């Protein structure tokens, strides 16, 4: 019986390792990461430079989300549409909002949508490609270079599975991007004159995999089938990337399932969860700040550090919901997440005639004593 128990314990310990070695994919390159921390769960030629087809649109859509006014309406020109391949159906003279361009890119993988976005944000395709490469450099994607906003092949249009996963992880922190990436369908309004039409997402995993939340498909003859996927389940978040994978749907289902089982949940709290933030210029001398516990998925027991950043004091008035500080969660040197700390109540400023009254003097005395103690 003791031997049997020992055997079962060893087997349970080894199952994850056996699963990783047996995981494998049909891809030239692949990676699976923890979407919260960026930890690598599985990789296969993850640093090999390869073309990425329409997964390029992750960067194009991200820049649109970060720089565009979604309500802005554009009149499409023939020059903007000088691009081949997949399309959301734009024609010269059509009116379309930047919101609908985002969904046309992410769901229908419209090269026309990507090109129009390039002209709107960059002035020209070349101008926008420069923006793409600058953003890649900003994110530290040293093995990524863009030539087109759509993902059409080019001699120096490449990335790696590792870089693409890092880009996807960053992009999914943008709420507008994440919402588009996870949408199975979208009813949009564009044309000349605009009329409603419904687009369906090319990502089959959104319907077939429990917890799938994106992200982007891609294909050209040169690149083969490329796919970036993500899944969230039970507060766990994983991202998978395959480049040149003829069996991508099945491979991603296996990768995502393995990743969701591999990570563990960790609750993080600062050493001090409640703070009295001094207030200058108000009857109320302090603002109570409470830091809620946060839950992250993690592969190992390496400690996640919680760093609370608050000023010594704030000036009244303070609006309810106003950002007064932040909490930064880090694993090693890697910043996992930054969460704003907001005022939970409104604090009115003293009337002008009381600015140098006894109440105000007491406020200043409290502040100076508070600073002295710290």
So what's the CATH class of the largest domain? Alpha Beta
Percentage of residues in strands? 25-35%
Topology order in helix (H) and strand (E) letters? HEEHEEHHHHHEEHEEEHEEEEEEEEH
Tell me, briefly, the overall form: globular
Number of helices: 10
Per CATH, what is the topology of the largest domain? Beta-lactamase
**Radius of gyration from the alpha-carbon trace, in angstroms:** 25 Å
CATH superfamily of the largest domain: DD-peptidase/beta-lactamase superfamily
Largest sheet: 5 strands, antiparallel
List the strand order in the largest sheet: 2-1-9-8-7
Outline the low-pLDDT stretches. 1-21
- Strand tally is 17
Mean pLDDT metric: 90
Q: Helical percent range?
A: 25-40%
Structural class: alpha+beta
What CATH architecture of the largest domain do you see?
3-Layer(aba) Sandwich
How many separate domains? Answer: 2
């Amino acid at each position: 019986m003791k031997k049997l128990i020992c055997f079962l314990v060893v087997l349970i310990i080894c199952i994850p390792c056996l699963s990783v070695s047996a995981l494998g994919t049909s891809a030239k390159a692949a990676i699976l990461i923890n979407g919260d921390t960026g930890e690598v769960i599985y990789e296969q030629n993850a640093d090999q430079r390869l073309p990425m087809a329409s997964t390029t649109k992750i960067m194009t859509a991200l820049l649109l989300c970060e720089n565009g006014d979604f309500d802005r309406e554009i009149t499409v020109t023939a020059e903007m549409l000088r691009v081949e391949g997949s399309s959301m159906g734009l024609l010269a003279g059509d009116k379309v909002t930047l919101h609908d361009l985002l969904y046309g890119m992410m769901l229908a993988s419209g090269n026309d949508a990507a090109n129009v976005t390039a002209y709107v944000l960059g002035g020209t395709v070349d101008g926008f490609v420069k923006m793409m490469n600058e953003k890649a450099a900003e994110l530290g994607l040293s093995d990524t270079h863009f030539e087109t906003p759509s993902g059409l092949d080019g001699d120096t249009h490449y990335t790696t599975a590792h870089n693409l996963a890092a880009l996807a992880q960053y992009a999914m922190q943008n709420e507008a991007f994440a919402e588009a990436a996870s949408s199975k369908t979208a009813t949009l309004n564009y044309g000349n004159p605009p009329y409603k039409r419904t687009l369906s997402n090319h990502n089959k995993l959104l319907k077939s995999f429990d917890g799938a939340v994106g992200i982007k498909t891609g294909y050209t003859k040169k690149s083969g089938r490329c796919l970036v996927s993500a899944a969230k389940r039970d507060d766990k978040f994983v991202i998978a990337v395959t480049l040149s994978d003829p069996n991508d749907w099945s491979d991603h289902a296996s990768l995502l399932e393995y990743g969701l089982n591999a990570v563990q949940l960790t609750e993080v709290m600062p050493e001090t969860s409640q703070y009295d933030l001094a207030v200058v210029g108000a009857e109320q001398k302090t603002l109570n700040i409470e830091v809620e516990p946060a839950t992250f998925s993690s592969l190992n027991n390496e400690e996640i550090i919680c760093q609370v950043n608050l000023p010594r004091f704030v000036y009244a008035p303070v609006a309810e919901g106003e950002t007064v500080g932040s909490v930064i969660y880090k694993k090693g040197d890697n910043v996992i997440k930054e969460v704003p700390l907001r005022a939970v109540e409104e604090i009115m400023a003293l009337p002008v005639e009381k600015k140098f009254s006894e109440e105000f003097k007491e406020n200043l005395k409290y502040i100076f004593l508070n600073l002295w103690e710290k």
